[in-house]
Amino acid sequence: MSPASIALNRFGYGLSAKDAAVGDPRAFLLCQFDAFDPSPPAIAARLDTRANTGEMLELLRRLRQDTRAMTAMEQAGTPAMAEGMTRQEARAVALDGLPPEYREQLVEARRVLADDIAVRVNTVLTSPAPMVERLVHFWSNHFSVSVGKPGTQFEAGPHEFTAIRPHVLGRFSDMLKAAVLHPAMQIYLDQFQSIGPNAPFAQRRARRGGDQQRPRGLNENLAREVLELHTLGVDGGYSQTDVTELARALTGWTVPGIGRVGRFAEDQPSGAAFVALVHEPGARQVLGRSYPAGEAKQALAILDDLAAHPATARHIATKFARHFAGDTPPPALVARLEADFLRSDGDLASLTRTLIEAPEAWTPGPVKFRTPFEWLIAALRLTGTTTLPPQRIVGALTELGQVPWRAPSPAGYDDLAASWAGPDALIRRVELAERIARNAPQDGVIARAEAAFPGALGEATITQLKRAESGQQALALLLVSPEMMRR
Amino acid sequence: MTAGFDRRSLLAGSLLGAGSLALPRLAFAQGTGSRNLLFVLLRGAADGMAMLAPVGDPGFEALRAATLADYENAPRIGSFFAVHPALAEIAKSAAAGEALFVHAAATAYRERSHFDGQNLLESGGTAPYTTKDGWLNRLAGLMNEGAPAPLRALAIAPAVPLALRGDAPVSNYAPSALPQASEDLLARVSLLYGADGELGPLWARALETRAMAADDGLTNLRDASAAGELAASLMRGEGGARIGMIELGGWDTHANQRGAFARSARQLDALLAAYKAGMGAGWANTVVVVATEFGRTARLNGTGGTDHGTASAALVMGGAVRGGRVIADWPGLADGKLYEGRDLAPTIALESVIAGAVAEHLRLDPKLAMARLFPGRGDAPLSGIIRA
């Protein structure tokens, strides 16, 4: 790959029809820092869904004993109907077995989710800062939430829009606090119903004999994933005691406007809330450091220290390097990024600049197999698509196997070729490419190929593009060419 | 292992710890005929104590009070264990002598990360991320040694899972709602990828698998019963895949476990019932191994769920299985018996279960299978799982 092709494809989402030529590759990337808009109007318009979440969680609480209804709820988290499925069929599949009074809410959840996904995709199709959009999607995947968990559907989009986007060129500690405490994450990892065993609320309920059906204790799911996935990494040197202590410190952090304690909630930044009544009292000990009793501030102080921990620097540097510079990232690059993270106190703009300046990020051979999402975005940009309706977008991503905010685990989608470069994946890309090519301008395909992969187009691809029987077929072949599959 | 009751009575017919009892008919890979192996991976740490509840253990009631009602009329295996009612078809297979559970089993992994736990179970390494290929792929490699052509190994999944990744050729397939690409485009893509060392072989296998699954009529894998049927259709008969793998999620039941576990269990039950029906006469020569990365805490947590634990249960099912029993060296649930004071303690190596079942079924030398699939383990492969 040429440096220009690397700037476009390895760092960005490929050439779009209206992009100018690359010029100086590093300057081309650095300019995008200023061109990036963290809150473009289409995204700013998507944030008013909080009331729905409260209703949804209350609905879930009431439905909990009804397994048929719960199954329907989980299917309702599937944002897409498959392409070719009619709206009525999709609705019937999702809503079968659900009490009729809840159907409207679920139809609404699916609509909101599909619209949020469409805003994410359409934003990047025309973005003047595709590299920074890649950072948004990288960090969103690092702090992965999944709409497979009932109740998160209204929050997954806002999680990325408000807890990730504003911080991708800011401080890691700010992103950590915003992403971990956002309602989407609290619902996804069960934090919102975790209660300190010695908190006033738990004590009072125990004295009254309590309602055995209601959740009434500590849940350590979020605490564990914060340590293992978001900060230190699995080998970061924490113990089960650290997990439990962090879980205790996190009690009280919840989703605003829900449950019996909702009226005691104090609103916090990033859409979270804190209820002192359910917070475990007392000092906490995490990774050998002591944190005095401090209600909401206690967890914030621990998160700040975790963000600055050397193990976190190592973990983040490794993942960042793997995303841009190869499945087995060059150790020298990891070391540079790690040092930068520590020196700059987790300044993510500085981390990104260090990546752009590092020679290891510019090795000529392609270093990554494009994930389905990366491939689809690059394909749509290359064909000059500037906007697509939500159902088309969600349908395509569903078939490719990578719907945003629907990763199979809190670790997010894998960032390794072996996870994506399977036989079935190739067939799907070919099928979709033929479809995309049918609806796109089909002239000048070879010139477009040369512009998209400047100085980097292989002989085999040029030969097959020239032999294609039509512009449409040439475009379909370009979309699945080896140059498009890897970056 | 000194439980305060007669745990040996649980082991009816099993040959626990009898790795030295060589099975005389076993030799190296030869004449596997049409024997099939399906590996079902339950992602998310399935709760073995919910799957196969130790209702005869005096400690169970206190740990799981809120779930006791589920097992009142549940099918039993012996007097000690009750099968979760959502696993009705599996329980029927057990009663028919075609399914067995192994309880209190765990891999060598002793931490509590899903991702590391799954990595270890799938790679078969001794520590997470140290082994790059998967044990199921190495099994295919072992079977291919000296064979005229590599066997078909297939994941029924949108991506090849780690367990099947490696040097032996494998494919994957999942139903798609996309319209099929034109024959002309497919042929031209073959030319486009012809000289590409990575895409060329992947593409060749993609076309082959697609041809096998030509008209499944499905658009996705969401219906567990349809997925089981699809797996059978891709594995039965002479041209079918010998080794298959399918994944089921939804087992990470941190909160409100009763409903969530029952839903996932019903999926597993429907999948296996449909697979069994779909295999038809081939079921007699089929073994299904169902395993999960680790178990869950013995005690229900504050939100009616369970957290990441250690030992769980595994299921071995199929016409070739000497079933109808539970293999366990039951560790007990009394205070002081739980692993780290919170989890069901592991007493059987899950790797031994897998290697033993696979080797006996596919007529491989168990020691060789253990060494190749799970190198570096001291455990002997479990024997006596498959009918002689």
UniProtKB/TrEMBL annotation, chain A:
<dbReference type="InterPro" id="IPR014917">
    <property type="entry name" value="DUF1800"/>
</dbReference>
<dbReference type="Pfam" id="PF08811">
    <property type="entry name" value="DUF1800"/>
</dbReference>
<protein>
    <submittedName>
        <fullName>DUF1800 family protein</fullName>
    </submittedName>
</protein>
From TrEMBL, chain B:
<dbReference type="InterPro" id="IPR010869">
    <property type="entry name" value="DUF1501"/>
</dbReference>
<dbReference type="InterPro" id="IPR006311">
    <property type="entry name" value="TAT_signal"/>
</dbReference>
<dbReference type="Pfam" id="PF07394">
    <property type="entry name" value="DUF1501"/>
</dbReference>
<protein>
    <submittedName>
        <fullName>DUF1501 domain-containing protein</fullName>
    </submittedName>
</protein>
